[in-house]
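Whiteboard transcription, Tuesday session. T.W. wrote the structure tokens on the left side:
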């Protein structure tokens, strides 16, 4: 499902659960569309579509004078059945998600709060978290200092799928009250600059939430799953039918491995169509995409020729608005990776069996033959996306990988491969040795270091290209490499 469709469905489901679970009862008014847009930064069209669908299905009435009002009555028994059915079909997904949040966002949340201005911390201190929507505003503000729009979209999707429905159940009102307690602790530690203590507060709060979800299922959700299991989904692209992006990254990976050597030509569209199992038109759109970022150069008579990194840089139109947006998203994805990679890599390696670990070693060792050591980070992220113990992490890491290929034309700005190897080869050898010795903490620390290096280089390159929006993306300093809870 594409990002736009996922968001429309998520907004509709969030509002529907608030009605069905009794947060808004018969005759009561729902928040206005403008208020939902303001709180969640979701487009008017998306929110309007959710409201009109609720009206068409008979859940609300809509009028210019009275706004949206609940139009259905539910008995306590009906509400209980709706809650049972909703959460039963999401059990695996919600437990998995609750356990994934800390390794994915623990350091990011801590770092953002550390850089949040005092006046904003003061606003957080006076925030009244008494409703699911107020909880979202806190979550949004918590990560705001990172300057990452892609992360904001991801946090919103998680809220709509997880926290929104969970906090809409009356029995979980106590969890919202606990949220007020933890908010007071967070703002207190932030104001006083007790950063180690803040890390402990954030970790304990998230651990409590994960335990509460598990207990909720143990004590409250007694029904069996009656429908197909609902899974968490998220797309880095806002529109559906983006198969060409996945194919483009697959071909770029083939280029990096020497499957399509520099100076050679990609197979004809008809042959690639058969190999990839897609239509010829999809292949042509994919090749057009590769042309736009300078990875290949097409001619009518010879086909698409694979370009070197330097040629790719020369052939990419960095002034094109779409290219600039995508390059900014590469930097945002690198920030998410950098701020989660150590924790996520460690729990992944700790969880894999001997066979999977052997695949991991073999995958990385292949770089030694090609001497493409700059691909160490990409291959490591790809392996995490395959082997991570939580599906939520696999989904998010896999989606973020789809953005990285947009950074391909910037490779030529770094110099030739041998120059890049001077930095990456020592790190690569340290990581391979760490895998051999099963020193997963060291492996994960080096991966984090490489990603932070990639992020710094990326931001510098974007600034040179005049993409000044990258200045808002927060990069941690050396003194901010936080060990607590990771």
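and on the right, the sequence the group agreed on:
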């Amino acid at each position: 499902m594409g990002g736009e469709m996922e968001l429309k469905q998520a907004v509709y489901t969030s509002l529907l659960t608030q009605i069905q679970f009794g947060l808004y009862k018969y005759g009561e008014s729902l928040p206005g569309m403008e208020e939902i847009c303001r709180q969640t930064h979701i487009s008017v069209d998306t929110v309007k579509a959710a409201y009109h669908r609720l009206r068409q299905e008979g859940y609300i009435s809509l009028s210019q004078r009275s706004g949206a009002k609940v139009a259905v009555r539910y008995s306590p028994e009906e509400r209980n059945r709706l809650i049972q059915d909703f959460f039963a079909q999401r059990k695996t997904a919600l437990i998995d998600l609750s356990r994934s949040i800390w390794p994915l966002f623990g350091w990011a949340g801590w770092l953002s709060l550390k850089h949040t201005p005092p006046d904003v911390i003061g606003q957080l201190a006076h925030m009244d978290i008494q409703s699911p929507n107020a909880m979202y505003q806190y979550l949004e503000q918590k990560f705001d200092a990172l300057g990452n729009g892609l992360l904001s979209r991801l946090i919103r999707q998680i809220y709509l799928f997880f926290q929104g429905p969970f906090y809409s159940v009356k029995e979980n009102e106590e969890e919202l009250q606990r949220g007020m307690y933890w908010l007071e602790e967070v703002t207190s530690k932030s104001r006083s600059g007790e950063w180690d203590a803040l890390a402990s507060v954030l970790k304990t709060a998230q651990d409590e939430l994960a335990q509460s979800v598990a207990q909720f299922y143990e004590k409250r959700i007694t029904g069996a799953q009656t429908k197909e299991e609902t899974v968490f989904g998220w797309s880095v692209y806002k529109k559906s039918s983006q198969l060409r992006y996945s194919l483009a990254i697959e071909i770029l990976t083939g280029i990096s491995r020497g499957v399509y050597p520099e100076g050679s030509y990609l197979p004809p569209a008809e042959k690639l169509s058969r190999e990839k199992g897609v239509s010829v038109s999809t292949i042509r759109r994919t090749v057009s995409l590769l042309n736009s970022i300078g990875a290949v150069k097409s001619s009518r008579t010879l086909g698409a020729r694979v370009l070197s990194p330097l040629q790719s840089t020369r052939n990419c139109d960095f002034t094109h608005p779409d290219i600039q947006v995508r390059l900014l998203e590469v930097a945002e994805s690198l920030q998410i990776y950098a701020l989660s990679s150590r924790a996520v890599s460690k729990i992944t390696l700790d969880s894999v069996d001997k066979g999977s670990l052997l695949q991991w070693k073999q995958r990385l060792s292949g770089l030694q033959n090609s001497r493409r050591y700059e691909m160490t980070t990409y291959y490591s992220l790809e392996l995490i996306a395959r082997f991570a113990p939580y599906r939520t992490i696999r989904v998010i890491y896999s989606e973020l990988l789809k953005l990285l290929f947009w950074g391909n034309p910037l490779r030529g700005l770094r110099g030739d491969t041998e120059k890049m190897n001077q930095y990456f080869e020592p790190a690569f050898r340290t990581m391979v040795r760490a895998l051999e010795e099963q020193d997963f903490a060291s492996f994960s620390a080096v991966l984090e270091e490489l990603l932070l290096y990639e992020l710094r280089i990326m931001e510098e390159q974007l600034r040179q290209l005049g993409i000044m929006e990258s200045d808002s993306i927060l990069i941690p300093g050396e003194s901010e490499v936080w060990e607590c809870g990771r």
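Someone added at the bottom: The CA atoms of residues 268 and 371 lie 28 Å apart.
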